[in-house]
Design brief:
The complex is a heterodimer of chains A (168) and B (444).
Chain A (H helix, E strand, L loop, with lengths): L1 E8 L6 H4 L10 H5 L10 H4 L5 E4 L11 H8 L4 E4 L4 H10 L3 E3 L1 H6 L5 E5 L4 E4 L4 E4 L5 H8 L3 H11 L4
Parallel strand pairs in A: 1-2, 2-3, 3-4
Antiparallel strand pairs in A: 1-5, 5-6, 6-7
Chain B lengths: L4 H10 L9 E5 L2 E5 L2 H11 L11 E4 L9 H16 L4 E2 L8 H7 L8 E4 L13 E4 L2 H10 L1 E5 L3 E7 L8 H12 L8 E5 L1 H5 L2 H9 L8 E3 L4 H8 L6 H4 L14 E6 L6 E3 L7 E3 L10 E5 H4 L2 H11 L9 E5 L3 H9 L2 H8 L1 E3 L20 E4 L15 E4 L2 H10 L5 H12 L12
Helix pairs in contact in B: 2-5, 6-8, 12-14, 12-15
Classes of the chains: A alpha/beta (168), B alpha/beta (444).
């Protein structure tokens, strides 16, 4: 899977409260959540982002609350993939579970600038910065995570397990 | 081979003789938890996937505590989805408003978790229960939906960091100060993906309430879980849970081997930890409370899953007895559970707080996450005993949250600016104390 889009750059420790403030958590409608994505640190983000664009951040992206509404809102806002130096652990699980592609690639994340054109090849595990003419190798997923991704997320994996036991 | 308590709990759960950090295991869950924000999304995923029944209605807890009592129509609809699901699947541990408490105060109090358990919760502060020598961690809604159907969770066995608190902390230095100080040292991702094991003389001396506070905030350093060894205090706590509860009837005690391997060992002299405050906008942005005396405050919140237990309210009352909340400050008390309310009413704590000028709420997460019951206006500042001070966390995006212990929060409520109990005593020594103690502390 290859994504190409404009980079929207954020710093380190972007928490899920700024990704989607709790005052909007009285719904789980993706489109409604998307309208408020990143609102508290970048009120213009939802107006600027175009379908397929790429979110870039430094260390510890998605720290804080376990709200799955955070990756849901990023996806529904049109972001195709998040490239970060590192992800907080619950956000990492949630992104894979809801099908938001994420890539761990510290140098690509640090060197990308707001508005750079990026191309991410999930299959090849590469991040290209087309604006700067640089290419980076992403950190591969552990085999188990890759299996979950290949199966379409956690619930299909669990369904297959339960079907194997005759429980589903 | 030597193992940490976390490795032993996970190995036993997965049916393995030994597990090592980095290994992926599939472990049965002893309890799976969600609330009125995370459960509706999980229920939607559970139903969309076509699951028809939960693995065990007695091992799921649904606690509508975040926006309840329902703050608006949409929240009421979310709460109704949770109630209907609980009814349809015969969920034993569904807690309706009136019996509900803040989940991480409620579940241990009800005896729903026991030493050695594996607990997952669709709430990041699920790490609280590690104070009972068990493994518990926060997950998202889909992980919770999977746990409801499957009764298992996949986990990467975490590396452990051992924190050793040597000696005893000073007067007015609580578990909250120890954990804020620790997060300040290692940063908000200092324990990313890791187990935080709290040990040492200061931990042994801490009450169970103080231990819950410390484990509650493991996530604020990026930790997967917080954990504290079982001792006589743990045993005494478990023995006073409801008759027949899991805490009274189940559980297995594991302990770290003396030669277990740790990714890091952090040694802290407890006596050097001062009453600590985390400034906006990260829990790691810490400073000594007495260095922040110039910070004027509009609101003080005491309570939550971090500091809403009886000891926390006792500490607040100790400072507020015979004193009054500063005219420019709103003091809001968020007790953890209905039992905490009853106990605080029975022993006079509630009266002390109300007489001082506090608003005493029913249990709810409320303002901690900017839900309701005390939202901040633009530019307002709050000292709060909760666990997060992110941008916009408690209200307007320009409002500010300072995290502190109940002692510092209560002293601040009286002073109108960030204050320690000692500073308050000095202030009243100048003749301000109304009880006649002259600031000597006799009023406490």
């Amino acid at each position: 899977m290859i994504m190409e889009g404009t980079a929207h750059k954020f710093g380190r420790d972007v928490d899920t409260d700024v990704i989607i403030p709790a005052r909007y958590l009285n719904t789980n409608d993706p489109q409604e959540l998307a309208r408020h994505c990143m609102e508290d640190i970048d009120a213009e983000f939802v107006r600027r982002v175009r379908a397929g664009d790429i979110m870039v951040a430094d260390e510890n992206f998605g720290c804080g609350s376990s709200r799955e509404h955070a990756p849901v809102s990023i996806m529904a806002a049109g972001v195709s993939v998040v490239v970060a130096a590192s992800f907080a652990r619950i956000f990492y699980r949630n992104a894979i579970n809801v099908g938001l592609p994420i890539v761990v690639c510290p140098p690509a994340a640090r060197e990308a600038r707001q508005g750079d054109r990026l191309r991410v090849d999930l299959g090849a595990g590469t991040v290209e910065n087309l604006t700067q003419g640089r290419s980076y190798a992403a950190e591969p997923f552990p085999p188990f995570m890759q299996e979950l991704i290949d199966r379409g997320g956690l619930l299909p994996y669990v369904k297959a397990k339960l079907a194997g036991k005759g429980q589903a | 081979m030597a193992s940490t308590i976390t490795e032993k709990i996970l190995a036993a759960a997965a049916g393995e003789a030994l597990v090592r950090p980095g290994q992926i295991i599939e472990a049965p869950v002893d309890l799976a938890l969600a609330n009125d924000i995370t459960a509706p999304l999980a229920i939607a995923e559970f139903e969309k996937a076509g699951f028809e029944r939960v693995f065990d209605p007695a091992r799921i807890a649904l606690v509508p505590d975040h926006f309840t009592p329902n703050k608006d129509v949409k929240s009421a609809e979310q709460a109704r989805k949770v109630r209907a699901f609980a009814c349809r699947h015969g969920i034993v541990n569904y807690f309706e408003v009136g019996r509900m408490g803040i989940e991480h105060a409620l579940l241990p109090e009800m005896g729903l978790v026991a030493p050695g358990d594996v607990v997952v919760g669709a709430d990041s502060h699920t790490c609280t229960y590690g104070a009972l020598a068990l493994f518990s961690t926060g997950v998202g809604s889909t992980d919770f939906a999977a746990a409801m159907a499957w009764g298992h969770v996949w986990l990467r066995v975490p590396e452990s960091i051992k924190f050793v608190y040597h000696g005893l902390p000073g007067r007015y230095v609580t578990g909250k100060d120890l954990i804020l100080d620790t997060i300040g040292r290692i940063g908000v991702d200092g324990a990313l993906y890791m187990a935080m094991e709290f040990t040492g003389e200061a931990i042994e001396a801490l009450s169970m309430d103080g231990r819950f506070t410390m484990c509650n905030m493991a996530i604020e350093a990026g930790g997967k879980c917080g954990v504290i060894a079982h001792d006589e205090k743990t045993a005494a706590y478990l023995a006073t849970r409801p008759q027949g509860s899991r805490a009274r009837t189940a559980g297995e005690v594991f302990a770290s081997d003396p030669d277990a391997h740790y990714a890091q060992v952090v040694e802290i002299a407890a006596a050097e930890v001062r009453p600590t405050v985390a400034k906006p906008h990260l829990p790691a942005n810490t400073a000594a409370a007495d260095e922040l005396a110039g910070v004027q405050i509009d609101q003080v919140v005491i309570g939550s899953c971090t500091n809403g237990r009886l000891e926390d309210l006792h500490q607040a009352a100790e400072i507020l007895r015979g004193r009054t909340v500063h005219p420019n400050v709103r003091l809001i008390i968020l007790p953890g559970t209905q039992q905490v309310c009853l106990d605080a009413a029975a022993d006079g704590t509630m009266r002390t707080l109300i007489e001082a000028g506090a608003a005493f709420s029913t249990p709810t997460c409320g303002p901690c996450l900017g839900g309701h019951m005390g939202i901040l206006a633009a530019g307002e500042r709050c000292v709060s005993t909760t666990n997060r001070n992110f941008v916009g966390r408690m209200g307007d995006v320009t409002s500010e949250v300072y995290l502190a212990s109940p002692y510092v929060a209560a002293a601040t409520a009286v002073a109108g600016h960030i204050a320690t109990p000692e500073a308050l005593g000095r202030q009243f020594a100048g003749g301000g104390c109304r009880c006649g103690c002259g600031g000597a502390g006799g009023c406490r």
